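Chain A, query sequence.
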Amino acid sequence: MSSSTQHRSTPSSALQILAAINQLSLQAYTAANIEILKFKILNETQQLLFYNRAMLCVIRAQKRAEIIGISGQTTVNKKSELIELLQHLLKNLKELDKIKKLDSSSFSTKASQDWTAYSQEKTKPNVCWVPLYRDKTNVVGLWLERWQEQPSWFDYEIELLGFLSMAYGAAWRQMQPKWTLQILLKFPWHMLAMAMTVACLFIHVPLRVVAPCEIAAKQPIIATAPLDGVIAEVMVKNGDYVQQGQLLFSYQKMVLLQNLSAQKNELQYSKAQLDRAVVLSQKRAENLAQIAGLTLQVEKQKAIYDLMRYQTDKLDYFSPRQGTIVLDDAEQWRGRPTAIGEKILLIADQKETKIKIWIPESDNITLHRDRPIKIILNIHPDKTLFAKVSSIASYSRIDDRGVPSFLAEAQWIEDKEYPKLGLKGTAVLYGEKVTLLYWIVRRPWTVLRNFIGF
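Chain A, predicted structure.
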């Protein structure tokens, strides 16, 4: 920048000065937000008088200083040595609410040497401090610098800055939030708290319990192991829809079929011996005694053969009805030995479901059975389904979360929607009406009494 451009003469007439002040004041008042106001103050003030650099500063309570804007820059590098030095000088600046040219006497003793070092830098800045806004905790001011051969600040320029600082300060004030901490602290909160406490004694609301729930089959068919043996393969997976007569699982067949074949041979051999004894008894009377024993042996062999043939008929298990498979893990049954009657899987009707609810032991209040409960499933948090409690267990047990809970069951009120089996969510149950104050303090009160034992 040339010296002719840097040195800008003052306005030639009072009219021009008033027009510039009026224009800058209007721009400040009409700023849309605080960031635009900062830009106007830092950069547009050159319409009135010349400076090389302007910095907008905030000096907070306990002399904490911060530079929040620099002319010609969009951001402030607060970790730079220059900014740290300037913030140190601002913290030690005396008479913050007075427009003045700065010199070593403007700072406290511990910062005067820093000011001397700063004023002797390459730019040799002449600095003018212009306070803009002040409240109980903060001072906002403008730090204006002219460098090197530029003239120092004239008295008439200080006067002009005084007029402009009032306009900038008023514009800054209107940008401040209407509610401050001091105003909030002065509000009669104790009166409001007393009024709310009294109101809580007269407002009655129903006790509410929020408990985890799961969609379960209403009347499932339990597919149990029909015989002792080793399962070869399970042909279905959890959630599969099966038809009546569809193969569900099968046993390993080789050993049983071999035993059946061997037993068949034993039976045929026993029958052959019996037939031979009958033929020989017609010639020899002593053979009649063998017939009774051989007959019993044939009957025994036939009973064993019939049992083994019955078991071979059960090697493949077919679905007794259509429905949805409920099974934890099909692979865990492969090659696993089973005992007669052991549960393998469930066959449920998707349209016949119920809700299992685990009510925590600490929330087992007297429920309003006639009032519908709300069911909010995890996959549809925007939908609310309604049901009615049908039963609650009289004893607690540990649920999947490790919480002692009472198992309750509920039936759907409307059968328009059929949530999938196994879906989980939250059930909201309602009890008797209590005061709002009791509703608020019930849980903390319980924790406190359990802690102090009173």
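The domain at 350-452 is CATH 2.40.30 (Elongation Factor Tu (Ef-tu); domain 3). The first strand starts at residue 53 and ends at 60.
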